[in-house]
Each structure stands twice: as C-alpha cells, then as structure tokens.
Structure of NAD-dependent protein deacylase:
Amino acid sequence: MRSVPVENINNIVILTGAGISAESGVATFRGPDGLWEGHRVEDVATPEAFARDPDMVQKFYDERRAKLDAVQPNPAHQALAELDQKWPGDLLLVTQNVDDLHDRAGSQRLLHMHGELRSAWCLACGERSPFAGKMALDPACPKCDQFGHLRPDIVWFGEMPYQMERIELALAQCDLFVSIGTSGAVYPAAGFVQSARHYGARTLEMNLDPSEGSLYFHESRMGKAGDLVPVWVE
Ligand SMILES: CC(C)NC(=O)[C@H](Cc1c[nH]c2ccccc12)NC(=O)[C@H](CCCC/N=C(/NCCC(=O)O)S[C@H]1O[C@H](COP(=O)(O)OP(=O)(O)OC[C@H]2O[C@@H](n3cnc4c(N)ncnc43)[C@H](O)[C@@H]2O)[C@@H](O)[C@H]1O)NC(=O)OCc1ccccc1
C-alpha cells in the first residue's frame, strides 16, 4: 500500500501517551518508578477494583489529580497546540493521558480517549462534571446534588474507550498518523497505527525507546518528545 508523499498531507491524527508528559514530571506507567510500580493495574484501574475497594481507588486518582497543580505543559505539548492553531487541514489529537497538559497548552481539536482526572462521573444521574479536589471525601454530584455516587471519569481496563467511532473515522481519513510517547502496549490505542496504514496513511513515531508497534511505522525517531516534537512541527 503506497503511503502518501509528504507534500500532500491534509488530514493528521496524532496519538500521545504518558511519554509526552514525562518531561513535565508526570509519572509514566511502565517506566522506572512508573505508576504501576506501586500498584498492580488490576488493583486500581478496573471496575472490579472500584467495586472491591472504592476508597483505595479514589485515593489513587485523588493523588494523581492533586499532582496536576504542580506540573506544567512542556515544549512538546506547546508545539502540538501551535500546530492545532495553524494546521489548515483536519487534525485530531487523541491522547491516552488523563492529565490536562494538552488542554492547558491550548490544544482544541483534542480527545481524551481514556478520560480525565479533572472530571467526575455521577453514577446516580449519569452526568459528568469538571472536578477538582478529593473524591474520596464523597462529595455531592455538582449536577444532581446526591452524595456518594461519583467515580473518576476514567476508562478502566475492560471498559470501552471514549469516542471510538470518531477516532476510527479520523483514522480512515487521515494521510498522516503520528504516535508520540507511547509504549504501544494497551489496546485499542496500540492498534491505531495498523488501521491508519491499512487506509494508506503515512506513519511516524517519536519515542524515547522502541515501542511494541515500532515495526508498523514508516519512520521512527528516537529521543525525547520535548526535543523531537517542536522540530517536527516547525
Ligand atoms: C495491558 C493490555 C494488554 N491490556 C489491554 O490492552 C486491555 C485489554 C485488551 C483489549 N484488547 C486487547 C487486545 C490484545 C490484548 C489485550 C487487549 N485493553 C482494555 O482493557 C481497553 C481499555 C484500556 C484503557 C485502560 N486505561 C488506561 N488509562 C486510564 C487509567 C489510568 O490512567 O489510570 S490505559 C493507560 O495505560 C497505557 C499506558 O501506556 P503509555 O501511555 O504508552 O505509557 P507507558 O508508560 O506504557 O509508556 C511510555 C512510553 O513513553 C516513552 N517515553 C518516556 N519518556 C519519554 C519522553 N520524554 N519522550 C518521548 N517518549 C518517552 C517510553 O519509551 C514508553 O514507550 C495508556 O493507554 C494509559 O492511558 N478496553 C477494552 O479493550 O474494552 C473493550 C473494548 C475495546 C474496544 C472495542 C470494544 C471493546
């Protein structure tokens, strides 16, 4: 399948993972002292874990939410926000990250496929609301005022990621698929490069280390996102 020469790239899909926020001081998942270091994934990021020990899970996400106040977007986030402002064609930035650094950098055409730390989901009224503070304190739902029904607005393992239809449509129409700072270990995100290639897109990876999907990329640039992404956007 011939991939698209650089000059006529109109529609871009960009996928980011924990690696793009590493230089801002946000822990990655699988790196040394990664998030999963202290916790078994299934103990904190599954609906079963939440049913079993909601307080432990709430505290895990309250901790990560509180840490957001101490971190800032880095040059990689800022470069993607600039690209979003100036790119005339279609562009969709799909992030697996639940931090708000892309949002704070100014990215607009942005989709959090695994949810957001700064959002609460009320299981009583079904509404989602912006949320700051500690959910372990059982606060009332900002929409229905009922207590004790809030859960983190996060996609846990075994749960369907958000806006998959919109993502699949963008992958089918993109000319260029770019992956930044992800290990390619978690599906369905890890399968996006193959979908994009299937539809004839050119594929580029920028990562500190080779990822599980590196062989599927036309081009892989190894290094820090904070160095590689601003150069790529220029
Ligand atoms: C472990 C894995 C094998 N398991 C899965 O993939 C499962 C099961 C599964 C589904 N399909 C499969 C097919 C095969 C095998 C398994 C499955 N997937 C699911 O359960 C998904 C839901 C998965 C989402 C779970 N929630 C997350 N996050 C929110 C929670 C939270 O944050 O607490 S996943 C979470 O882990 C993943 C972590 O990966 P990365 O972000 O890549 O981070 P990591 O630390 O691994 O790597 C960092 C990378 O950055 C690089 N790096 C580091 N520093 C830098 C730097 N400075 N610059 C550049 N790069 C850098 C490093 O080299 C490294 O490569 C992210 O997705 C992140 O969001 N749901 C689902 O399948 O539902 C049904 C379904 C789906 C579709 C259609 C119908 C039904």
